[in-house]
Amino acid sequence: MNERGPEILPGTWEHDWVSSVVAKAEEYAGRPSRWNGKLYEQPGPVAGVCLPDGSMTISREHVLDPARPAYTPGRTLTSDERHAAASATTMAVFNARLSMSEVGDDSMPGATPIESLEDIALENARCDQFSREYSGRIAESMTDQSLDLGFQAPTFPAYSAATDRLLYTLGGATGMSHSQLGDLIDSTARTQRFNAIADRALDHQVGELIPESHRAQLREDLTGPLRRGLGGLTMTEMSELTHPGSKHKWGWDSAEWTEVEFTTNLGDIKEHYESWNAEHPGVEPPELPDSLRERFLDREEEIQQVWASKGWPAQQPVAGREKEYYERLPEQVYPNAREQEIAKLQQFLWSHTAPSQRQDSAVDTGGRPDNVRQIGSARKPDRGVE
Questions:
Q1: Which structural domain range is residue 192 located in?
Q2: How far apart are CA 186 and CA 51, in angstroms?
Q3: Shortest CA distance to 167 belongs to which of 57, 258, 68?
Q4: In sequence order, what are the residues at sequence separation of 6 or more whose Cβ sits closer than 8 angstroms to the Cβ of residue 56?
Q5: Sign, Cα dihedral of 62, 64, 67, 69
Q6: What is the CB neighbour count within 10 angstroms for residue 367?
Q7: 3-state SS, residue 176
Q8: Is 224 inside any structural domain?
Q9: Number of domains forming the structure of the chain
Q10: Cα(184)–Cα(174) distance, rounded to whole angstroms?
């Protein structure tokens, strides 16, 4: 059960302001919000969340109170008040954008589990991009105050850098521009976004050569790199000790290797079906041979080794090759017991939160979904919606 405080009733300034933010966000996004009009106070160091029942929470301390002076006619703001109102506006716009994503059914075969690591990464990246692009315009349409909402650094630099680069680099594979691919993601239910990208690439590259009965497995061959590349950024993104610039670099590099694995797998798939069609026109092709499946696994391992050499913190054995993976791991020597204990805890954490392995909606010890970040984080103290 998500923690929420007293209801904020319609007709109050707070409810009217949030309603206006959501309405303006809908206008710019070009899609409706699933907010049902129910609004509650969000206690604690969290800016707000969108709940499964369609209601929303919003922090009075971190969003409503700092925003109010800027949206009250006749007020003269101090520099600190202006900055606080700008941050509060961005949080509210982020939350409004979260409410526009269709959730979908993650019990369907091949669906992305809601609040799996890869789902959180992609959703936060898209909401981050939206709030940075439109918070200033939304503020201008609602107040005469000049809020400092021009250039804003990403709230999630690793997620945002990786996603933004993938939207460009996957253009050739999908036949879509950066904005078209972004629109495809935003208009697709969260549980089916990776499948939608894979389907678009398959349709663009191979078209009608693929029997429908083959599609589910081929999707996995293409969504796997995307899930690992984005979900694998979680430990980097959530680190409070990693500089935002370093997070951006990890995200950028992750997207590079994700695109390599995705497009190379796609090329092998295309070659299989086109060569069969050339030799046996009109005859239904067989599924990918085992040798090609092994090649995909080899490629996954090769990219893992690239990341291991860079100190990538999200290494996992390839499915079905766990024994070989652990056998070839060198014995790690730690400088002290504390470092060894940290390494064990990191391994335990990752083994229990690997992409696509969690079937439930993850919550922290306070009952919040793990895509809700607390205000006051050393990672980004003036942002709180995740």
A1: 151-352
A2: 18
A3: 258
A4: 18, 35, 38, 39, 40, 48, 49, 50, 95, 99
A5: negative
A6: 10
A7: coil
A8: yes
A9: 1
A10: 11
- Sign of the Cα torsion 374, 378, 379, 382 reads positive
Closest CA to 64 of 117, 9, 18, 113: 18
Partnered with residue 7 across adjacent β-strands are 40
What pLDDT digit, counting tens, does each position of 100-138 carry?
999 999 999 999 999 999 999 999 999 999 999 999 999
Three-class HEC string of 18-77: HHHHHHHHHHHHCCCCCCCCCEEECCCCECCCECCCCCEEECHHHHHHHHHHHHCCCCCC
Question: Which region, left, alpha or beta, applies to residue 42 given φ > 0 means left and ψ of -120 to 50 means alpha?
Answer: beta
CA count, 13 A, side-chain hemisphere, 41? 13
| Structure-token pair, residue 215 | 């599609």
Q: Residue 356 in contact with residue 227, Cβ under 8 Å? A: yes
132 located within any domain? no
- Residue 169's CB is within 10 A of a number of other CB atoms, namely 17
Locate 200 and state its tokens.
């678009």
> 62 lies in a domain?
no
CA angle, corner 238, sides to 236 and 242, nearest 5?
55
Q: What is the pLDDT of residues 32-79, one digit of tens each?
A: 999 999 999 999 988 999 988 899 999 999 999 999 999 999 889 999
**Tokens read off for 246:** 């370093």
Q: What is the mean pLDDT of the chain?
A: 85
- Give Dmax over CA atoms of the chain in angstroms: 77
Both structure tokens of 138: 């939304």
What is the Cα–Cα distance from 385 to 48, expressed in whole angstroms?
A: 6
Residue 6 identity (one-letter amino acid): P
Q: Which amino acid is at 283?
A: V
* Sign of the torsion formed by the C-alpha atoms of 205, 105, 167 and 26: positive
Q: How confident is the model at residue 249 (pLDDT cuts 50, 70, 90)?
A: very high
Has residue 52 been placed in a domain? no
Beta strand 56-58 with 39-41: parallel, antiparallel or unpaired? parallel
Nearest one of 112, 60, 127 to 372, comparing CA atoms? 127
Give the residue with greater pLDDT, 181 vs 310: 181
Place of tokens 């959730």: 103
Angle at 264 between CA 109 and CA 326, to 5 degrees: 70
For residue 140, the 8-state DSSP code is H
Where do we find the tokens 């009075």?
Answer: 60
